[in-house]
Design a protein that fits this description.
Elements: E1 6-9, E2 14-19, H1 30-33, E3 41-46, H2 59-72, E4 78-83, H3 85-96, E5 101-107, H4 124-132, H5 135-145, H6 149-153, H7 155-167, H8 172-187, E6 202-207, H9 217-224, E7 228-233, H10 240-243, H11 245-258
Parallel strand pairs: 2-3, 2-4, 4-5, 5-6, 6-7
Antiparallel strand pairs: 1-3
Helix pairs in contact: 2-3, 4-8, 5-7
């Protein structure tokens, strides 16, 4: 029985699995998927146990959720795309279930070895205080911190991103559970990723001005992952795939066409 919450854009052709980041759901890929060539792509967008009654979990549990979904829907092989925290889950999948992947795309993310440039791990108190702020105030403020100034000045694009984030704001309980899983990933799960087992074509993308996940991390990932290519998206920040979805879609479409 499938327990994972997901969205499915059904089509003939190869399967593509998208995993969103911390506190996000399938809607975070809305702008990107509007630009991706979805013809002959069977697309699943995972929701990472958002709005569920499950107890605490690890990112490895979320990786198993994806495999169980693929098993129960009859998808033996699939392309994998992960953003931010979704990139952590994607790396676990690519290491532990490497024989299932056709390709790997990592966006605005990093690994959990000591030489990666670290990210801020929010405390439960910080998340609680943030949730107390009304969405109409909290979301524009937080979005401005993870989008490029060029995007902020482009009111149409900025407001599209803000509205998606307001309508899909994660609740406090799920935020805390996910943050615990992220903290565990960086503190005690070092052995869960064997980069030498990631033997599929890989693309690593980052915003060139990402203030949350240093863009320097794509070079470190490139060092660990065999067969990887990397690319910076100019004048973007952490939400680069929402800021410049056409450019990101172009990079992904080119990558997928190249490996056929």
């Amino acid at each position: 029985m499938i327990t994972t919450n997901y969205q499915h854009l059904e089509s003939e052709g190869e399967t593509y699995v998208f995993i969103p980041g911390f506190g996000c759901n399938h809607e975070s890929f809305k702008l990107l998927l509007n630009e991706i060539d979805t013809n002959n792509k069977n697309i699943y967008i995972i929701n990472n146990r958002i709005n569920t009654d499950t107890s605490d979990f690890t990112l490895r549990d979320l990786a198993k959720d994806v495999i169980e979904l693929m098993d129960e829907t009859g998808n033996e092989k699939f392309h994998l795309i992960g953003t931010s925290m979704g990139g952590f889950i994607a790396q676990i999948l690519a290491s532990s279930y490497h024989d299932r992947l056709l390709s790997l795309s990592l966006l605005c993310t990093l690994g959990n070895k000591d030489d990666f440039h670290p990210i801020k791990i929010y405390s439960e108190q910080e998340l609680t205080e943030f949730q107390k702020v009304p969405s109409q105030k909290a979301i524009p403020f937080s979005t401005e911190k993870i989008t490029h100034q060029e995007t902020v000045l482009n009111k149409d694009t900025f407001n599209k991103i803000v509205q998606i984030r307001i309508k899909n704001r994660c609740n406090l309980e799920d935020h805390i559970k996910q943050m615990k899983a992220v903290k565990n990933f960086f503190s005690s799960d070092h052995a869960c990723i064997d980069y030498q087992k990631i033997n599929v074509p890989s693309l690593i993308l980052s915003g060139d001005n990402d203030r949350f996940v240093s863009p320097k991390n794509i070079n470190i990932l490139n060092k660990y992952i065999p067969h990887a290519k990397n690319q910076l998206i100019k004048n973007t920040d952490h939400l680069f795939f929402m800021e410049k979805p056409k450019e990101v879609a172009k990079a992904l479409n080119h990558f997928w066409e190249e490996i056929k």
